Each structure stands twice: as structure tokens, then as C-alpha cells.
Amino acid sequence: MAHVSFVLDPRLQASTLAVGDLGLSRLLLMNDARFPWLILVPRHAGLVEIVDLEARDRTLLMEEIALVAHWLRQRAGVDKINVGALGNIVAQLHVHVVARRIGDAAWPGPVWGAGTARPYGEAEARMLVGEVSRLINT
Amino acid sequence: MAHVSFVLDPRLQASTLAVGDLGLSRLLLMNDARFPWLILVPRHAGLVEIVDLEARDRTLLMEEIALVAHWLRQRAGVDKINVGALGNIVAQLHVHVVARRIGDAAWPGPVWGAGTARPYGEAEARMLVGEVSRLINT
């Protein structure tokens, strides 16, 4: 059987800024300044559902969700963390971890499908990716 | 410190049918015939975020998500599983595991906040709860 390498879905790539790789997942920052929004993409080819992961990797994924959620939660003004694995549009398994504020652009509804992304400015994006990238080597 | 018992949020109770208890979570069937939709509520008092769980319980929660997702996925006509922990309206930590079909009432958007629930008929509800309850003793 040929070895199939992990390749990030081009739609995920186009809508995010790359942060780096955790033990299991590629960490992405959604390019939408309306919400502090990170995405974890387990780096195995062909994954669609959480149950496609082996139990050991599911535990790893959960710990990476917790790491990212913990980081988001300690940011100023964050009222709630939303975690979601949907994949109705992009099938490649990816987990959203989103910081929500009461009264934000989609509150109290979900962020998925809500309005139009507002891309970060270049300086803001660089600063945020720099901050998030501290998670990579912890 | 007084021991505080787990009490299911009354809004979750009102919108669901109780199935039973897994090792960590109470398992509920959302009373919405538009989507096969289960909810896991970890049975510790005071939980709001996934990171409020200890690492061991996070692993347990992930395995209960996988158990439920696996069961939903093998049902006829299911195209995608959606998993979400939002809590913007009901703060008590709960995880949605929803079977999606291409063209369903909210496709490809999220189910949360989409339209109005269509309650099950009594016989249908009893049958489904019976089927789901087989997950309890596995």
C-alpha cells in the first residue's frame, strides 16, 4: 500500500494563517478578526471523522483542544469557548476552537456560516500568530 | 466544602429525552426529529468548559463522544457527524453529537439555532430511546 502523506485541504489553507505543528495536529489561526479562532487539523491523511482516529490519537486531540482552549480562555474579554468538529463543507477532519464574547458578531449563535470573515491586517496577523506560536513548543 | 451534586440544566432536560448514564456523562436524545442528535453531559457539578474537566475525564469524554458518533454513523443515510460543545445559551458543559444528511433541514450549516425543533411522536421517541439505550451497557 502506498504511503499517503498529509496535505492540508486548500480551503482550510486559504482561510487561515499557519501557526505550526503540535504533536498530532497542525495549528491554524482563522483569518477572521471578528473572533479569536484556532483550528486543529490532525496530520494523518484521509481523516474525516473523530472516530477515524485511533483511541490514542483521540486522547492526544482532546489534549490539544484543551491546550488551545486554555490559551484562548485567558485572553481578555473571553466569555465562552466553542469547540466544534463539523466538516459539512470541508471534509478533512478539523476542530474549531473559538473564543466567544457576549455580543460578538454571531452571539449567541454559532460562528459557522455567520456573516463574512473580516481578515486581519498584516501587523495584527503577525502579532497574533507570534503569540499563538508559543503554544507549539510547550 | 459542601458537596454539590450534579443537576441537569432544566433547559437541557426540557428539550431532550433521557437515555441513561455512561461512565462519565448523562446521555440525552434531543427531541428534534429533524436530526438524529445525542447530547453528552458530564455528571460533575459546575462544569462549563471542556478544560474544567480533569485530563482523565477529558479522555473519558472523548471516548464517549466516539462511542456515540460510531453508533450514529452506522445508521442509514448518515453522511457526516457533527460534534460541538458551545454553551452560549446553556452554560452547563454538554457536547452535541449530531448525524447529518446532505440536504437535511440545516445542511450544510450547523444545527444550532437553525429553525424550530420538530418533536418526536411518542412511539418514535420510545423506539429511538430504546435503540440508543443499548449504548449504556456496552
Query: For the largest beta sheet of chain A, what order do the strands appear in spatially?
Result: 1-2-3-5-4
The number of helical segments of chain A is: 3
Order of helix and strand elements from N to C terminus of chain A? HEEEHEEH
The named CATH superfamily of chain A: HIT-like
Fraction in helix of chain A: 25-40%
The largest sheet of chain A is: 5 strands, antiparallel
- Kindly report the oligomeric state of this protein: homodimer
Roughly how many Å is the radius of gyration of chain A? 15 Å
The overall average pLDDT of chain A, rounded, is 95
What would CATH call the architecture of chain A? Answer: 2-Layer Sandwich
Could you tell me the number of beta strands of chain A? 5
Poorly predicted ranges of chain A (pLDDT <50, ≥5 residues)? none
Q: CATH topology of chain A, which one?
A: HIT family, subunit A
Q: What is the CATH class of chain A?
A: Alpha Beta
Give the chain pair forming the largest contact, with residue counts.
Answer: A-B, 33 and 33 residues
Structural class of the helices, strands and pairings of chain A?
alpha+beta
Q: Can you tell me about this structure?
A:
2 copies of one chain form a homodimer. Chain A has helices at 10-15, 55-73, 122-132, and strands at residues 16-21, 25-30, 37-42, 80-85, 95-100. Chain A is α+β, with helices and mostly antiparallel strands. Chain A has a single domain, classed as HIT family, subunit A (2-Layer Sandwich), CATH 3.30.428.10. A 5-stranded antiparallel sheet of chain A has the order 1-2-3-5-4. In chain A, strand 1 (16-21) and strand 2 (25-30) form a beta hairpin. The mean pLDDT of chain A is 95. At the A-B interface, helix 2 and strand 4 of A face helix 2 and strand 4 of B.
